[in-house]
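Whiteboard transcription, Tuesday session. T.W. wrote the structure tokens on the left side:
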């Protein structure tokens, strides 16, 4: 202890016993992580819903597990912005953000889908696929999400100016979670749903088993998309950055209203349209090279000014990663 007390850093100060961090952006990133953790816990409790404080049903557990994944996306978008606003960006924050994303957008969607399948089997409904086939597909998604985020960290300072290489992990998680929320029966719906017709319940009855059967395949496909070099546009930059027309703002307002009033359908259409949009653009620009945007064929390592994984804004300097979560 005496020897430890004699140690000094370069500024002559005694060493810290604990790592010093910036609290505000760190708390925002932890919000992302804890939402992912909560989504996993609720999905795992669907077979034995908690009764102590909340009268959840199995469907409530699955539904709110999916909603927590979307709430994690809000924290994921905000942490980099908060770090820039407070001038507390750091490499520590970037690494912590990626670790949180692995939980919220890698592990949580796979656990949610597995819990939905197990719940279906426990209810006596059966399921066409055996676990020996489901596990590898879900494991592929989790592994690819981790590799996607690791690759992003490596390329963060030399990323593409206008595109992501591979589908962003929040977008992939949104595709899976939105389909799950779409087909879960609606006892958990907010009071506004009482004003709606029964068309959503009828739709769920018609598509429940086909979508649930397809979800393991969808997750495996999304996992592969995350580690490919398919170009995905920085949707946040295109929608929110810079001056926009009045009609553009009105369109965003209409989308927000639709999300509030009918989030089950709107989120499923939005996220899966984004997934298909990237594939359609890749096919189009490979078939018609003359129509490609600038820098389309450039490798990520040769470019600057990246956009963040799930962020809506680009950095002011090419030497600072766009997604600069807490420090």
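and on the right, the sequence the group agreed on:
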């Amino acid at each position: 202890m005496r020897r430890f007390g004699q140690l000094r850093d370069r500024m002559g100060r005694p060493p810290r016993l604990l790592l010093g961090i910036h609290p505000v952006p760190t708390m925002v990133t932890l919000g992302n992580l804890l939402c992912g953790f909560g989504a996993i816990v609720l999905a795992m409790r669907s077979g034995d819903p908690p009764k102590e404080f909340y009268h959840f049903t199995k469907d409530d557990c699955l539904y709110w597990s999916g909603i927590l994944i979307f709430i994690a996306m809000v924290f994921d978008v905000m942490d980099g912005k908060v770090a820039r606003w407070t001038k507390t960006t750091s490499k520590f924050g970037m690494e912590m953000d990626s670790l949180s994303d692995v939980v919220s957008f890698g592990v949580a969607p796979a656990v949610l889908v597995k819990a939905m399948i197990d719940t279906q089997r426990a209810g006596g409904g059966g399921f066409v696929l055996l676990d020996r086939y489901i596990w590898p597909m879900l494991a592929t998604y989790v592994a690819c999400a981790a590799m996607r985020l690791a690759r992003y960290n490596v390329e963060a300072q030399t990323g593409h100016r206008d595109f992501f290489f591979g589908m962003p992990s929040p977008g992939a998680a949104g595709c899976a979670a939105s389909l799950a929320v779409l087909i879960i029966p609606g006892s958990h719906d907010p009071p506004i749903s009482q004003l709606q017709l029964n068309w959503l319940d009828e739709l769920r009855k018609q598509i429940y088993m086909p979508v649930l059967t397809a979800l393991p395949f969808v997750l495996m496909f999304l996992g592969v998309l995350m580690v490919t070099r398919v170009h995905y546009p920085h949707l946040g930059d295109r929608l929110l950055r810079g001056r926009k027309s009045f009609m553009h703002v009105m369109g965003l307002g209409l989308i927000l209203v639709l999300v509030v009033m009918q989030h089950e359908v709107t989120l499923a259409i939005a996220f899966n349209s984004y997934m298909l949009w990237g594939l359609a653009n890749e096919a189009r620009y490979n078939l018609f090279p003359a129509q490609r945007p600038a820098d389309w064929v450039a490798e990520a390592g040769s470019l600057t000014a990246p956009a963040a994984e799930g962020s809506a804004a680009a950095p002011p300097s090419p030497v600072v990663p766009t997604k600069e979560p807490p420090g």
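Someone added at the bottom: The chain has a mean pLDDT of 79.
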